[in-house]
């Protein structure tokens, strides 16, 4: 048994529209808006009056706390003798083999 066409149409109308559901001329977009304009030569000029700016309210007396305490110092890796630091492929492979065993 299948539901009637009326019930199928009602269920379909509850879905969001896509570009495949309607005729040409429908552009959904992303809802972000433009932050500038295109130039004749293919460049892009940012218009700073269109750029969104978020202002953080004062946090004195704010009752919520961050996930990580502010007293914890950031940890840095020890890369003495490695010229590229964490980007060194030899160091990456040696660490991978030490942690994961054989290939």
CA radius of gyration is 28 Å
Count of runs of 4 or more consecutive helical residues: 2
Main sheet makeup: 2 strands, antiparallel
- Give the strand line-up of the largest sheet: 1-2
Helix content: 10-25%
Q: Number of DSSP strands?
A: 2
Short description:
It comes from Corynascus novoguineensis. It contains 2 helices and 2 strands; from the N terminus they run αββα. The chain is mainly alpha-helical and 103 residues long.
Using brief descriptors, characterize the structure shown.
mainly alpha, 2 helices, two-stranded antiparallel sheet, 6% strand, 103 residues, extended, 20% helix
Q: Could you describe the 3D structure shown?
A:
This is Mitochondrial ribosomal protein L27-domain-containing protein. Belongs to the mitochondrion-specific ribosomal protein mL41 family. Its main location: mitochondrion. The chain is mainly α. The protein has helices at residues 5-13, 89-100; strands spanning 36-38, 44-46. Strands 1-2 form a two-stranded antiparallel ribbon. Strand 1 (36-38) and strand 2 form a beta hairpin. 0% of the residues are buried.
Annotate the secondary structure layout:
Elements: H1 5-13, E1 36-38, E2 44-46, H2 89-100
Antiparallel strand pairs: 1-2
């Amino acid at each position: 048994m299948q539901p009637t066409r009326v019930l199928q149409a009602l269920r379909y109308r509850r879905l969001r529209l896509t570009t495949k559901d309607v005729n040409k001329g429908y552009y959904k977009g992303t809802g972000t808006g433009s932050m500038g304009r295109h130039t004749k030569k293919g460049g892009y000029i940012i218009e700073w009056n269109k750029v969104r700016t978020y202002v953080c309210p004062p946090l004195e007396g704010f009752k919520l706390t961050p996930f990580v305490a502010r007293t914890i110092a950031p940890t840095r890796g020890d890369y003495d003798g490695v010229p590229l630091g964490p980007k060194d492929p030899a160091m990456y492979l040696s660490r991978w083999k030490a942690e994961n065993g054989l290939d």
